[in-house]
Amino acid sequence: MTRSSALGRTSCAHPSRPSSFPIAPAPSPSVRMRAPGTCGELVQGAIGGQDFLVNCPIDTFACATARVVPERGLALAEPDQHQKVRRLADALAERFGVELTHEVRIDSAIPRGKGMASSTADLTAALSALCRCSRISLTPAETGTLLASVEPSDCVHYAGIAWVNHLTGHRLGAWTAPAHLRVIVIDGGGEVDTVGFDRDRARAVYARQEAIVRAYVELLGRSLCLGDLEGIGEAARQSARLSQEILPKAHFAPLERIADKEGALGVNCAHSGTVLGLLYTERGEGDAGERLRRSVEAEFGTDAPIVGDYAVVGGGCWMGR
Fold first, then answer.
1. Rounded CA gap, 209 and 43, in Å?
2. For 168-188, what is each residue's pLDDT tens digit?
3. Predicted TM-score of the model (pTM)
C-alpha cells in the first residue's frame, strides 16, 4: 500500500459512494432493506494508538422493514431483542431532525454473539430503511458515526472491503471485494459481548507487537489491490495468530493444520467473537469447499459445528427481498 503512514489512505482505495442511502421517495407503504453480516474480520489491530479493523462481509444478511405509522415514536416488532435499534433511531432523530413515526421489524438468520456482525447488520439495515422511509440521505461517514455511537461497528455499509476505526466509524480506506474468495465459518462455542471485550488487553498486545501488525496490514492492502488471494489468506492468518494472545480459540491450531494440509488460503477469526473462518478459493479443479467441509467435520464433529459456507462480498445496503 502506498500511503503517508500505516493508517493513511490507500492509493487503490475503492471510491466512496456519493451517499449511503439515495434520496428517493419510498416506493411503497413499507421499505425493506438488507445489510450483510461478516465472518469476523480479515485483520484487526491498533497502530500508534489508533484502533482499526478490515471487515470481511459475507453473503448472509439482516433485513429491516420500516413503515410510517400514524402514532409518534418508534414501534419495534420485537422490542426485547432490538433495543440497540431504538437507541440508533433516537440518535438519528436527535442529530438529523428526523421525526419518528415508524414501525420497524428485523429479520435475520445471522448467529448472535459470535462475531458475525449480527448487531451491525441489524442496525445498518434498520437505519437504511428509516432514512429511505423519511426520504433523507446520510453520507457514509455520517452513517458510520451513528452506528459507532451505539456500539463498535464493522461498518458493512461501506462499499467493498472497508478499513475502519470500528470505535468511531471513520473509514481509513477500502478495496473492491476480491473475486472467488469464500469462507467456511466454524463456531467454537459460547458467546462474546463485543461491548464488553477487553480492549485494554488487546491494545497492550498490539502495542507490543506493532511491527507484526504493520506487516500484516501492509500485506493485506497490497494483496487486496492485486487480487492476490494467497496474500489475503496469509495476512488474515497472521492477524488471527496474534488474536490468540488476546482471545484464544481452542480450535485455531487444528484448523490451521487443516488449511495447510488441504491447500486452503488461511484462517481468519472474529477478534472479539467466537467464530473462525477457513478461507479458500472456488477456482480450480474439484469441489474445494466440499473437501474442506469434510475435513472440518472429521476433525471437530459437533464440538465446533460449521455455521455455513459463504462468499466474501462487498459491503453495502440494498433493497431487501
1. 14
2. 999 999 999 999 999 999 999
3. 0.89
